[in-house]
């Protein structure tokens, strides 16, 4: 059966974003072993699939006219429609206005432990910290990412990044492009191979630079929340990532060893030393908190007709008795358990009606009594956490009593949950959350997530993808390659000979690969100079009509790549797994570096990255129809290297127009086959190309791209 017929729903997704902006929004792809496994499992259809989403008000659908238009509902419905034979469960565990620290504690209430894919959206809710090193927000997100990656289902994790508050203001002034933590969080993508999607980068050219009708900030956002159109474009990015992963599977099928490594390889140590996630937490909210209450005198368990469950009292003297296990868990061999535990009660604060309550240990445990005022002057109603240090006990009773004293003249008090820190990491995290964040918005996981299944989401609009091959791009003649560099590495310091420097190796490869083209390679590196020197003296180091310029200065801000669409190669990311984690012979730091400069082998791998970015691996042929076509491949006497080795590793036959289109696009728009093994066997090369979003000038529609990518997925299976 033709691929187009088999995958009609998959091919029919209608993108709102143009193809170039979809590419721009793919902030990090990497090797994506877990995501490749998920896409393969979807296509085979032999196992149930569970997908989830965590985040704040954006992911809950705030700003949409109906929750069915939220990005996760649209994406979930697309997955369900595309794979009708597969049992798919979608669960939205987002809670409005919560930071990721809250989800670290209460993860089990929001995501299935055997989930296959989890999206994470917290940029707006985590606050701002613009430091590159020792970033508080990145540390918080790392803890959540580690908890997710360690779940029994070994899920693929995708960061869904939205514009920071103020960036999408309906009218100027607006927050600058770089004023967000999403670029710093990209280090987590590189370190853990978690994919990243950037709505900011996908929209910026159209919304801010061109201000194109239908794509301006005011067309896509209601305030700092995306509206229906903005959510649709978030779904576009998620679908595009899935389809691009399908293309990756076509070119490099999933190997059994790759799947085995997902389950057997231990989670690497934290990127920030000691930044461990809590191994266990006790988080009770909603009905799970109700089961811990032994006595409620004057308190009623109610959602107050708002879907926000908790125990509410309105008169002084009301009492609530909660039973807790406050014993601290410790790892084997870690010594005796501590004799105290941090306990954090969720309670409501509001600007009207609220009273005060006393929290005290009433039986089997001890603690200092705590008086909590539910009234504040802010014109919002928000859930806060009240911290208590409680002695260890298997049957600790805490009594909450509403006091006669009041700041508002009334006595309403609401308690909606409790978190017990069961290890030191959880205790430290909760302590900082109590003092740095303070607020934990009201939200009942058990009631909030069940309504988010894909079956309940409205069907998204779909149509048959446009067929047809991509227009063949006019071949560009590369005339001159120039390196502008002002550091000792590119100059070739610490190589045994300058001919072994990465730029010399790359330039020589380019000249040999295109013997009919006049190519000039110029190394403008100056030892010991920062980029500010080259800013002043650029004309002396680079030809003004240069076609390609490499810059090597260890840039720590990924926002430049996203803002200007300049490609980035990372030797750190390419080598880290082999050099630091596995410490594989021949790939250890001492094998590749002389001091902090790469040696000959390190320079060769830098050249590998540059070649990988440039190289084409697919040789397309247009062949007449035949039941017995014979193709002969003959090695010629002519050679560019002085030798004659030639390797052919496979063939793909386009069985219908959609498949032909995607293969044509692969051939003409880069042609790289992921997973290619270079001379030194660096398998992490895909991870190093952190931002490769090129605009090819073709008149391709985004819908056509979707059709082509989907066809590739079927071929891979």
Large-scale geometry: elongated
CATH superfamily of the largest domain: SGNH hydrolase
The chain-level structural class is alpha/beta
Parts with pLDDT < 50 across at least 5 consecutive residues: 1-7, 440-486, 668-717
Largest sheet: 6 strands, mixed
Q: How much of the residues is beta strand, in percent?
A: 15-25%
* Assembly type: single chain
Mean pLDDT across residues: 81
Region (Disordered): 696-717
Biased composition (Low complexity): 702-717
InterPro entries: SGNH_hydro, SGNH_hydro_sf
Protein name: SGNH hydrolase-type esterase domain-containing protein
Overall description:
With 717 residues, the protein is an alpha/beta fold. It has 3 domains: 17-263, Rossmann fold (3-Layer(aba) Sandwich); 281-443, Galactose-binding domain-like (Jelly Rolls), CATH 2.60.120.260; 480-716, no CATH class. The protein is 33% helix and 16% strand. The chain has 26 helices and 22 strands. A 6-stranded mixed sheet has the order 1-6-5-4-2-3, sandwiched between helices. A hairpin with a 6-residue loop joins β13 (356-363) and β14 (370-373). α3 (19-25) crosses α10 (199-210), α8 (136-149) runs parallel beside α9 (182-192) and α12 (228-251) runs parallel beside α26 (702-716). The chain is elongated and about 95 Å long. Residues 1-7, 440-486 and 668-717 have low confidence and may be disordered.
């Amino acid at each position: 059966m033709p691929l187009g017929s088999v995958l009609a729903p998959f091919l029919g997704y209608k993108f709102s974003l143009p193809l170039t902006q979809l590419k721009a929004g793919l902030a990090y792809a990497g090797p994506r072993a877990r995501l490749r496994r998920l896409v393969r499992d979807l296509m085979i259809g032999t196992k149930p699939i569970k997908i989830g989403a965590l985040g704040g008000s954006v992911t809950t659908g705030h700003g949409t006219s109906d929750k069915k238009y939220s990005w996760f509902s649209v994406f979930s419905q697309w997955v369900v429609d595309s794979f009708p034979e597969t049992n798919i469960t979608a669960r939205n565990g987002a809670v409005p206005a919560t930071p990721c620290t809250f989800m670290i504690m209460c993860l089990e209430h929001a995501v299935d432990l055997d989930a296959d894919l989890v999206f994470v959206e917290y940029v707006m809710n985590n606050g701002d910290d613009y430091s590159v090193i020792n970033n508080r927000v990145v540390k918080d997100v790392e803890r959540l990412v580690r908890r997710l990656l360690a779940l029994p289902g070994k899920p693929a994790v995708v960061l869904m990044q939205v514009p920071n508050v103020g960036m999408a203001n309906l009218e100027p002034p607006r927050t600058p492009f770089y004023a967000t933590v999403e670029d710093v969080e990209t280090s987590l993508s590189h370190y853990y191979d978690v994919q990243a999607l950037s709505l900011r980068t996908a929209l910026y050219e159209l919304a801010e630079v061109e201000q194109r009708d239908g794509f301006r900030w005011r067309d896509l956002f209601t305030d700092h929340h995306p509206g229906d159109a903005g959510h649709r474009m978030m779904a576009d990015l998620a679908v595009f990532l899935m389809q691009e992963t399908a293309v990756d599977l076509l070119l490099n099928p999933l190997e059994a060893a790759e799947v085995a490594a997902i389950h057997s390889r231990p989670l690497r140590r934290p990127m920030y030393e000691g930044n461990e996630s809590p191994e266990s937490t006790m988080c009770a909210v909603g009905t799970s908190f109700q089961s811990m209450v032994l006595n409620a005198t004057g308190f009623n368990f109610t959602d107050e007709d708002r879907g926000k469950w908790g125990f509410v009292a309105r008169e002084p003297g009301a009492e609530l008795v909660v039973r807790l296990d406050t014993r601290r868990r410790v790892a084997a061999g870690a010594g005796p358990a501590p004799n105290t535990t941090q306990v954090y009660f969720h309670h409501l604060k509001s600007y009207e009606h609220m009273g005060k309550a006393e929290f005290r240990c009433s039986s089997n445990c001890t603690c200092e009594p705590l008086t909590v005022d539910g009234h504040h002057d802010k014109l919002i109603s928000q859930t806060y956490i009240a911290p208590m240090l409680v002695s260890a006990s298997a049957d600790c009773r805490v009594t909450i009593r509403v006091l006669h004293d009041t700041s508002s003249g009334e006595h309403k008090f609401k308690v909606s949950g409790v978190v017990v820190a069961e290890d030191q990491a959880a205790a430290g995290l909760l302590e900082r959350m109590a003092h740095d964040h303070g607020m934990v918005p009201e939200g009942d996981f058990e009631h909030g997530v069940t309504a988010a299944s894909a079956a309940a989401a409205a069907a998204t609009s779909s149509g048959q993808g446009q067929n047809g091959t991509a227009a063949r791009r006019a071949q560009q003649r590369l005339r001159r390659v120039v390196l502008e560099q002002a550091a000792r590495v590119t100059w070739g310091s610490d190589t045994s000979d300058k001919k072994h420097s990465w730029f010399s190796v790359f330039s020589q490869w380019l000249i040999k690969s295109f013997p009919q083209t006049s190519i000039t390679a110029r190394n403008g590196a100056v030892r010991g100079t920062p980029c500010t020197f080259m800013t002043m003296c650029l004309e002396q180091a680079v030809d003004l009509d240069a076609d390609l310029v490499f810059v090597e200065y260890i840039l720590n801000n990924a926002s430049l790549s996203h803002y200007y669409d300049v490609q980035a190669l990372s030797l750190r990311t390419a080598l880290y797994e082999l050099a630091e984690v596995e410490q594989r012979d021949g790939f250890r730091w001492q094998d590749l570096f002389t001091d902090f400069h790469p040696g000959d082998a390190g320079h060769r791998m830098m050249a590998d990255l540059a070649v990988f970015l440039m190289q084409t691996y697919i040789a397309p042929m247009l062949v007449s129809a035949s039941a017995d076509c014979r193709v002969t491949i003959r090695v010629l006497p002519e050679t560019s290297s002085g030798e004659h080795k030639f390797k052919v590793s496979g063939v793909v036959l386009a069985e219908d127009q959609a498949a032909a289109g995607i293969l044509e696009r692969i051939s003409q728009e880069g042609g790289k086959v992921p997973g290619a093994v270079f001379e030194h066997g660096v398998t992490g090369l895909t991870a190093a190309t952190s931002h490769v979003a090129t605009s090819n000038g073709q008149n391709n529609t985004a819908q056509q791209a979707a059709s082509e990518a989907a066809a590739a997925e079927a071929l891979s299976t």
